Amino acid sequence: MDEQLLQGLPAQVNADCRVLVLGSMPGAVSLQQARYYAHPRNRFWPLMGALCGFDPAQEYTQRLHCLLQSGVGVWDVIGQCRRSGSLDAAIERGSEVPNALPALIQGLPGLRAIACNGGAAAAAFRRWVSPALPPLAAALPVLALPSTSPANAAWTLPRLRAAWAPLQPWLETGAQAAPTARGR
C-alpha cells in the first residue's frame, strides 16, 4: 500500500462558534481543493444548508461564511497522517497526529456542543482529545453523528437531517441560551 503523508486543512472557526463539527481527516478531493467537504457526493453542505438556512449551492466561500455566521465551525481531529485514498479505514495506524483541539476548545467561550461527523471522528476524539480537556470543556456535549461521506451511502439526506437535528437548538438565533453543561 502506497500511503502518503497528508496534512489536513486549517480550522474554520470564529469567536462566535457554538457548534464545532469535527471530521476525522479530509478526503483526497477536499485536500486537493483545500476546501472542507469538497467531494460532490458528500452531503455535509446540503445538510448544513438545511439545518442553518442557507443555499448549499453557493460558492464555497459564501457557504463557509454562512456556516460561520450560523455559529458553526469545522475542523478535523487528525491533523496529519499517512493514508492511501480517502477512506478512514486506510489511515495507517500510528501515523496520526491530532490537531490542537484542546487549546481551540478552551478558546471558544460560546461553544455549546461538539459534533463528530462519523464514527472515525468520534473514536479519534475519544482517543486524543477527551483525555486532554480540562473539566469545564470536558463537560460539553459531544455528539457522535452519522458520517455525511458518500461512503456512508446507506444514510439518505433526510435520514442524516433527522440524525443531526439535535444540533438545531444551538443553531437558532439566540442559541447562546441553549442547554450546556458549561453554562451550569
TrEMBL record:
Listed Gene3D superfamilies: Uracil-DNA glycosylase-like domain
GO molecular function per UniProt: DNA-deoxyinosine glycosylase activity
The Uracil-DNA glycosylase-like domain, residue ranges: 10-168
UniProt keywords, alphabetically: Glycosidase, Hydrolase
Keyword Hydrolase part of the UniProt annotation: yes
The organism's place on the tree of life at top rank: Bacteria
Record EC number: 3.2.2.15
Coiled coil (residue ranges): none
Name used for this protein in its record: DNA-deoxyinosine glycosylase
